[in-house]
Here is the input.
Amino acid sequence: MADQILQFLLTGITVGATYALVALGFAIIYNASDVVNFAQGEFVMIGAMSAVALSAGDGGLPMPVALLLAVLITVGVGVLLQRFAIAPARGASVVTTIIITIGASIFLRGVALLVWGKDIFALPAFSGDAPIHIGQATLLPQNLWVMGGAGLMVLGVHWFFGHTTIGKAVLACSCNRTAAHLVGINVGLMMLIAYGLSAFLGAMAGVLVAPITFTSYDAGVMLGLKGFAAAILGGMGNPMGAVAGGLLLGLIESLSAGLISSGYKDAIGFVILLLVLFFRPSGLFGRASVERV
Amino acid sequence: MKRLRGLFLLTLLVVILPLLFPDNYYVTVVAVSAALHAILAVGLNLLMGYAGLISLGHAAFFGIGAYTSGIVTTRFGLDPWSAMAAGMLLTGTIAFVMARPILRLKGHYLAMATLGLGIIVQIVLVQTEELTGGPDGLGGIPPLSLFGWEVDSDLRWYMLMSAVMLLVVWLALNIIDSRSGRALRALHGSEVAAEMMGIDTTVTKTGVFVVAALSASLAGSLFAHQQAFISPDSFNFFFSIELVTMVVLGGMASTFGAVFGAFVLTFLPELLVIFEDYEVMIFGAILMLMMIFLPQGLFVGLRDLLRRLLQQQRAPAPAPVVPAGEDKHDAA
Amino acid sequence: MTLLEVQGLTKSFGGVTAIADLGFDVPEGQVYSVIGPNGAGKTTLFNMLSGIYHPDEGSIHFQGREIIGLQPHKMAAMGLSRTFQNLQMFFNMSVLDNVMVGCHLRTGSGLFSAALRLPGVVREEREARRLAREALSFCDLERFVDQRADALPYGVLKRLEIARALAVGPKLLLMDEPAAGLNDTETAEMQRLIRCICERGITVLLVEHNMGLVMRVSDRILVLDYGTRLAEGTPLEIQNDRRVIEAYLGGEVQYAV
Ligand SMILES: Nc1ncnc2c1ncn2[C@@H]1O[C@H](COP(=O)(O)OP(=O)(O)OP(=O)(O)O)[C@@H](O)[C@H]1O
Ligand SMILES: [Mg+2]
Here is the structure.
């Protein structure tokens, strides 16, 4: 039993690491522009799908090059999304922006469908398929890639916002756009950076996890929803809360799939999320705000 | 009566359409689902457009209504009308219980919670196979009959669905033009001020949530009896989003706007079919473009454009006047 | 008779004590003003009186009844209404509808009778409309009846908020800075309106920075400083109070009374 639980925990952390990256992307965009970007999951899909497309076949590029290009393509998509769909709609209501980003996600999915069709693809593992044994539990090298990669990126984002001028400038825009503009910050550029960064995180999640979970044109839908759920669970205003929310959601799902029922694992994740919200309406690590009148 | 002029025009349209185009696919098939969607959108609009409470899980209530009807008639042999009532009872109870904790949430947290609720219900529909038939769906649901009048042809479904739609529109218009409707709109305008005017905001939110859920359940039952077969896919996250989009296209806080949004969004995919593989992409693009360039919705956008054109013709422009119960402004 | 009785009221936000051990009595039928520098805790006091914030300590008696813990809509039902420092209009509604919301408690039909538009509902609507128009004309706003609230100038909105509060049919009206942002003519109108409200038998609790207005319109004044009571008395007493002159008015006192 203990071994089994160890196995569930390992799986949970891997899945959770993916969610964490998606959730982090949600939180960054939300903090920078007050938009919940429902196309976040499509970043993951585009990253994974373009990596597959670029590396596949005889004429395919070497893996590292394909991965790099795939990530760059996704960042490009993120920047274009900001520039042409989000920026023109500034000041729109919550619902309107939600529908714009949902429209964007449908659009991107439609493009993927055109380009790659409905097939399911796999990316080869980065360093072989030889399982690693930890007690009775086993782990693929790719799991380590996911955990390690996600860990590195979270640290990187933390450092970016805490210690670089650009990172601080992005945060300043989220606090007060006008003030940021007045002290000479290029708000438009900062928004592009925030969306680019989110797309980067999504693409990284996509390429890291594609060898394990496979990918297809609609792979981003559920991941996007899970990422949003994780970000809310942690508390939208807090990027590191979103990461914690992602890990937690991954663990909850893996444990409930193993111990209760795999069919209900998603439902259990959402039930726990609802319960958390009922008792903490601003998420686990979000700050409750008193409305001033 | 000025108050019901819009409803009168809509009724006229509903009656004339099949007379002009009998046996037309778009009238007897597509318009029937459009009317069904309109019932859903008008209910959701009370919640979203008027009270300003977003729901990304409205398909759940549609599904509970449909499945209750389907299960109760096929497995327990109840007649469709009692099944419909049972569906509404169940949906209403679930909505009532969930309303209080969920509607305490704000903004994106509320969006997430309703989305979660929708997903949970969908998973339960898939998983409880013995009852719902699981992912394969549930078939053999009997058609409706009204005092011996079997609703068994497309045209008859057109009549029934349109009649229910008109009824729901009438009820919604009545609610909006009343003390309760003002309470809803006040809630949207300023929650503290609404409380200070003596409105119990918790009760008001619960009430509108239940009403929206009831209309969704009613639509669900109609859908189940019309289709004779239902599967969980009809009640997924995407359908919830489609409903929200209908309301937003209609301009939020406009009942006729919601009806309009339902028709546009039902006909659009039918028309996009000719683009085959490009359909999904074009649909996404249209959604984005409409929201970017007409954030106040297509219906209100077109209406305002029309008004401006008319006003230019007969200057001087009259002072802005709000038609009863029609909010153009959306402060969500 | 005392309408409102406050004792030992305390409220802090994190480290900031907004109101500390505050006590005062508001006599019925008067205009009672609360003044004090920015951040003195006046709005916080109003928020506690109207049930929006929950005090940390203390008691509030309204018409002899303890009201702490009651939600704002219950306070409204007891006869307390208010306006807000930052306008809280229903900008998505017409002027008439705004004020008709104020009549919520004076009508009673529910969701289902409304949906079916039973005859009672129609009658009630007519009555609510009458009450709303009355409140509007009392505040000299008949001209704007059919306009949208978001199309109105600030000065009109300030009065509209009062009309809406009056439509509730209050015994006690809390007004948070009704003259802020108004020009001289509008301020004079506001002064007249406040006296008219009081003459109708409605007790007014007023927060206002315009000293001239406060001195002219008030029966009694409470001076707050950092959430505590600095002085209390008639306008004349306050104007001659050493502590007030030193602490609040910085030594130079010149009223245009
Ligand atoms: N919701 C809140 N959260 C945190 N602090 C608050 C809150 N509301 C008020 N405060 C603090 O309490 C103190 C009193 O504020 P309050 O708004 O009551 O002052 P005021 O007397 O109304 O000032 P003004 O004349 O500027 O309106 C201030 O220091 C303010 O920052
Ligand atoms: Mg104040």
About this structure: Chain C touches chain B through 48 residues (CB under 8 Å). The CA atoms of residues 21 and 234 of chain C lie 22 Å apart. The radius of gyration of chain C is 19 Å.
